[in-house]
Design a protein that fits this description.
globular; 2 helices; 2 domains; Jelly Rolls; 5-stranded mixed beta sheet; mainly beta; 32% strand
Length: 247
Protein backbone atom coordinates (compact mmCIF):
# COMPACT_ATOMS: atom_id res chain seq x y z
CA UNK A 1 0.00 0.00 0.00
CA UNK A 2 1.43 3.34 -1.02
CA UNK A 3 1.65 6.10 1.55
CA UNK A 4 1.37 9.84 1.20
CA UNK A 5 4.98 10.40 2.25
CA UNK A 6 6.43 9.10 -1.05
CA UNK A 7 3.90 10.52 -3.51
CA UNK A 8 3.73 13.61 -5.66
CA UNK A 9 1.83 16.50 -4.09
CA UNK A 10 -0.29 18.96 -6.05
CA UNK A 11 -2.15 21.87 -4.52
CA UNK A 12 -5.26 22.98 -6.38
CA UNK A 13 -6.72 26.45 -6.70
CA UNK A 14 -8.80 26.90 -3.58
CA UNK A 15 -12.16 28.54 -3.34
CA UNK A 16 -14.15 29.12 -0.18
CA UNK A 17 -17.81 29.91 0.32
CA UNK A 18 -19.35 30.48 3.73
CA UNK A 19 -22.85 31.42 4.84
CA UNK A 20 -24.72 31.11 8.09
CA UNK A 21 -25.67 27.53 7.16
CA UNK A 22 -22.86 26.31 4.92
CA UNK A 23 -19.10 26.00 4.74
CA UNK A 24 -17.78 24.52 1.53
CA UNK A 25 -14.11 24.25 0.54
CA UNK A 26 -13.35 23.34 -3.08
CA UNK A 27 -10.29 22.56 -5.17
CA UNK A 28 -10.41 22.84 -8.96
CA UNK A 29 -7.65 20.44 -9.90
CA UNK A 30 -8.17 19.69 -13.63
CA UNK A 31 -5.34 17.18 -13.37
CA UNK A 32 -4.91 13.97 -15.34
CA UNK A 33 -4.21 10.90 -13.21
CA UNK A 34 -1.37 8.71 -14.58
CA UNK A 35 -2.77 5.53 -16.12
CA UNK A 36 -1.87 2.25 -14.44
CA UNK A 37 0.24 3.91 -11.74
CA UNK A 38 -0.29 3.15 -8.04
CA UNK A 39 1.74 6.22 -7.05
CA UNK A 40 -1.04 8.56 -8.15
CA UNK A 41 -1.30 12.13 -6.90
CA UNK A 42 -2.11 13.86 -3.64
CA UNK A 43 -4.16 17.05 -3.69
CA UNK A 44 -4.09 19.40 -0.69
CA UNK A 45 -7.03 21.42 0.57
CA UNK A 46 -6.71 23.86 3.48
CA UNK A 47 -9.70 24.26 5.80
CA UNK A 48 -10.01 27.10 8.30
CA UNK A 49 -12.69 28.93 10.20
CA UNK A 50 -14.86 25.92 11.04
CA UNK A 51 -15.94 26.64 14.59
CA UNK A 52 -17.15 23.18 15.67
CA UNK A 53 -15.81 19.65 15.66
CA UNK A 54 -16.73 17.55 12.64
CA UNK A 55 -20.16 15.91 12.60
CA UNK A 56 -20.37 13.24 9.90
CA UNK A 57 -24.10 13.94 9.55
CA UNK A 58 -23.00 17.33 8.18
CA UNK A 59 -20.00 16.26 6.14
CA UNK A 60 -19.89 15.42 2.44
CA UNK A 61 -17.10 14.96 -0.09
CA UNK A 62 -17.74 15.97 -3.69
CA UNK A 63 -15.72 14.34 -6.49
CA UNK A 64 -15.80 15.09 -10.22
CA UNK A 65 -13.82 12.89 -12.61
CA UNK A 66 -13.69 12.92 -16.39
CA UNK A 67 -12.41 10.00 -18.40
CA UNK A 68 -11.26 9.44 -21.94
CA UNK A 69 -13.44 7.14 -24.09
CA UNK A 70 -11.94 3.97 -22.64
CA UNK A 71 -11.40 5.03 -19.01
CA UNK A 72 -13.34 3.05 -16.40
CA UNK A 73 -14.42 4.04 -12.90
CA UNK A 74 -13.33 0.58 -11.74
CA UNK A 75 -9.71 1.71 -12.22
CA UNK A 76 -9.95 4.40 -9.55
CA UNK A 77 -8.71 4.38 -5.97
CA UNK A 78 -9.08 7.41 -3.71
CA UNK A 79 -8.79 8.13 -0.03
CA UNK A 80 -9.06 11.24 2.14
CA UNK A 81 -6.71 11.98 5.02
CA UNK A 82 -7.73 14.44 7.74
CA UNK A 83 -5.38 17.01 9.35
CA UNK A 84 -4.85 14.63 12.28
CA UNK A 85 -3.94 11.69 10.04
CA UNK A 86 -7.14 9.61 9.94
CA UNK A 87 -7.94 7.97 6.59
CA UNK A 88 -11.29 7.30 4.92
CA UNK A 89 -11.39 5.31 1.67
CA UNK A 90 -13.72 7.08 -0.75
CA UNK A 91 -13.29 4.79 -3.78
CA UNK A 92 -11.62 1.41 -4.09
CA UNK A 93 -12.18 0.15 -7.63
CA UNK A 94 -16.00 0.32 -7.76
CA UNK A 95 -17.59 -2.83 -9.10
CA UNK A 96 -14.69 -5.21 -8.43
CA UNK A 97 -16.17 -8.43 -6.99
CA UNK A 98 -15.47 -12.15 -6.86
CA UNK A 99 -16.86 -12.47 -10.39
CA UNK A 100 -15.54 -9.19 -11.82
CA UNK A 101 -11.85 -8.32 -11.64
CA UNK A 102 -12.17 -5.15 -13.73
CA UNK A 103 -15.03 -3.30 -12.05
CA UNK A 104 -17.43 -0.77 -13.51
CA UNK A 105 -16.46 0.80 -16.81
CA UNK A 106 -18.47 4.02 -16.61
CA UNK A 107 -16.68 6.99 -18.11
CA UNK A 108 -16.55 9.69 -15.44
CA UNK A 109 -17.97 10.38 -11.98
CA UNK A 110 -19.79 13.37 -10.51
CA UNK A 111 -20.64 12.10 -7.05
CA UNK A 112 -21.18 13.13 -3.46
CA UNK A 113 -19.79 10.83 -0.76
CA UNK A 114 -21.91 10.96 2.40
CA UNK A 115 -22.07 8.58 5.37
CA UNK A 116 -24.50 10.48 7.58
CA UNK A 117 -28.18 10.06 8.30
CA UNK A 118 -30.62 9.00 5.59
CA UNK A 119 -32.12 11.78 3.50
CA UNK A 120 -35.97 11.86 3.41
CA UNK A 121 -35.71 13.27 -0.13
CA UNK A 122 -33.71 10.26 -1.41
CA UNK A 123 -36.57 8.36 -3.05
CA UNK A 124 -36.84 5.78 -5.79
CA UNK A 125 -39.27 5.85 -8.71
CA UNK A 126 -42.12 4.65 -6.47
CA UNK A 127 -41.58 7.47 -3.97
CA UNK A 128 -40.07 5.17 -1.32
CA UNK A 129 -37.26 6.62 0.81
CA UNK A 130 -34.07 4.61 0.31
CA UNK A 131 -30.82 4.42 2.24
CA UNK A 132 -27.69 5.55 0.44
CA UNK A 133 -25.70 2.79 -1.29
CA UNK A 134 -22.04 1.88 -0.76
CA UNK A 135 -20.38 3.45 -3.81
CA UNK A 136 -18.57 0.19 -4.51
CA UNK A 137 -21.93 -1.12 -5.77
CA UNK A 138 -23.43 2.05 -7.23
CA UNK A 139 -24.95 0.17 -10.18
CA UNK A 140 -27.33 -1.41 -7.65
CA UNK A 141 -28.48 1.89 -6.13
CA UNK A 142 -32.33 2.00 -6.17
CA UNK A 143 -32.38 5.75 -6.90
CA UNK A 144 -29.41 6.39 -9.18
CA UNK A 145 -28.51 2.93 -10.48
CA UNK A 146 -31.09 2.83 -13.26
CA UNK A 147 -29.65 6.00 -14.84
CA UNK A 148 -26.03 4.83 -14.81
CA UNK A 149 -24.54 4.68 -18.30
CA UNK A 150 -21.26 4.66 -20.15
CA UNK A 151 -21.13 8.47 -20.11
CA UNK A 152 -20.80 8.89 -16.37
CA UNK A 153 -22.34 8.59 -12.95
CA UNK A 154 -24.11 11.17 -10.81
CA UNK A 155 -25.53 10.69 -7.32
CA UNK A 156 -25.02 10.52 -3.55
CA UNK A 157 -23.35 7.40 -2.19
CA UNK A 158 -21.70 6.05 0.95
CA UNK A 159 -17.90 5.85 1.01
CA UNK A 160 -16.26 2.57 0.03
CA UNK A 161 -14.39 2.18 3.32
CA UNK A 162 -12.33 -0.87 2.25
CA UNK A 163 -8.78 -0.01 3.31
CA UNK A 164 -6.98 -2.62 1.22
CA UNK A 165 -4.51 -2.44 -1.63
CA UNK A 166 -6.52 -1.73 -4.81
CA UNK A 167 -4.55 -4.47 -6.58
CA UNK A 168 -5.34 -7.04 -3.91
CA UNK A 169 -7.09 -10.31 -4.74
CA UNK A 170 -10.74 -10.08 -5.79
CA UNK A 171 -11.70 -12.13 -2.73
CA UNK A 172 -10.44 -9.32 -0.50
CA UNK A 173 -13.08 -6.92 -1.84
CA UNK A 174 -15.79 -9.38 -0.85
CA UNK A 175 -14.46 -10.18 2.62
CA UNK A 176 -12.92 -6.92 3.88
CA UNK A 177 -15.11 -4.92 6.26
CA UNK A 178 -15.83 -1.23 5.64
CA UNK A 179 -13.86 0.09 8.62
CA UNK A 180 -12.53 3.27 6.98
CA UNK A 181 -15.64 5.18 5.97
CA UNK A 182 -16.14 8.91 6.60
CA UNK A 183 -17.28 7.94 10.11
CA UNK A 184 -13.60 7.81 11.16
CA UNK A 185 -13.66 11.63 11.14
CA UNK A 186 -16.44 11.96 13.70
CA UNK A 187 -15.57 14.54 16.37
CA UNK A 188 -12.21 15.68 14.96
CA UNK A 189 -11.10 19.28 14.52
CA UNK A 190 -11.63 19.83 10.76
CA UNK A 191 -9.31 22.83 10.51
CA UNK A 192 -5.97 22.25 8.81
CA UNK A 193 -4.72 20.60 5.62
CA UNK A 194 -6.70 17.70 4.16
CA UNK A 195 -5.08 15.35 1.63
CA UNK A 196 -6.94 13.59 -1.18
CA UNK A 197 -4.99 10.74 -2.75
CA UNK A 198 -6.13 9.52 -6.18
CA UNK A 199 -4.69 6.76 -8.38
CA UNK A 200 -5.70 5.03 -11.60
CA UNK A 201 -4.36 1.56 -10.85
CA UNK A 202 -5.33 -0.34 -14.01
CA UNK A 203 -3.99 0.29 -17.50
CA UNK A 204 -6.24 1.17 -20.42
CA UNK A 205 -7.49 4.76 -20.36
CA UNK A 206 -6.74 7.71 -18.09
CA UNK A 207 -9.02 9.83 -15.92
CA UNK A 208 -8.86 13.46 -14.90
CA UNK A 209 -9.79 14.79 -11.46
CA UNK A 210 -11.72 17.93 -12.35
CA UNK A 211 -12.52 19.04 -8.81
CA UNK A 212 -13.18 17.93 -5.28
CA UNK A 213 -14.74 19.62 -2.29
CA UNK A 214 -15.40 19.25 1.41
CA UNK A 215 -18.88 20.31 2.49
CA UNK A 216 -19.62 20.82 6.20
CA UNK A 217 -23.37 21.32 5.64
CA UNK A 218 -26.21 19.11 6.79
CA UNK A 219 -28.44 17.60 4.09
CA UNK A 220 -31.61 19.72 4.31
CA UNK A 221 -34.89 18.45 5.72
CA UNK A 222 -37.93 18.67 3.37
CA UNK A 223 -39.12 21.93 4.97
CA UNK A 224 -35.69 23.45 4.31
CA UNK A 225 -35.99 22.60 0.63
CA UNK A 226 -39.40 24.31 0.60
CA UNK A 227 -37.95 27.36 2.35
CA UNK A 228 -35.10 27.59 -0.16
CA UNK A 229 -37.55 27.45 -3.07
CA UNK A 230 -39.75 30.07 -1.40
CA UNK A 231 -36.82 32.42 -0.87
CA UNK A 232 -35.76 31.97 -4.47
CA UNK A 233 -39.23 32.83 -5.76
CA UNK A 234 -39.40 35.84 -3.43
CA UNK A 235 -36.07 37.12 -4.72
CA UNK A 236 -37.21 36.70 -8.33
CA UNK A 237 -40.44 38.59 -7.60
CA UNK A 238 -38.52 41.49 -6.05
CA UNK A 239 -36.16 41.53 -9.02
CA UNK A 240 -39.07 41.74 -11.52
CA UNK A 241 -40.76 44.46 -9.46
CA UNK A 242 -37.53 46.51 -9.58
CA UNK A 243 -37.29 46.06 -13.34
CA UNK A 244 -40.90 47.18 -13.86
CA UNK A 245 -40.40 50.19 -11.59
CA UNK A 246 -37.35 51.31 -13.51
CA UNK A 247 -38.92 50.72 -16.95
Amino acid sequence: MKTISNMVFITGLIGFTATASAQVFSSYANTSIPDGDENGYVFNLDVSGVATTLDTNKFKVNLVFEGDPIAGSGDLYAYLRSPDGKIAVLLNRPGVTLSDGIGYQDNGLNVTIYDGANDPNHKDATGTVQAFTDIHYYHDDPVYGSSVGEQGVTGIFKSDGRFIDPLDLQTSFATTTRDNTLQVFQGIDPNGTWNLFVADVASGGSSKLVSFGLDFTAIPEPQEYAMAIGLGLMGFALYRRRLLKNA
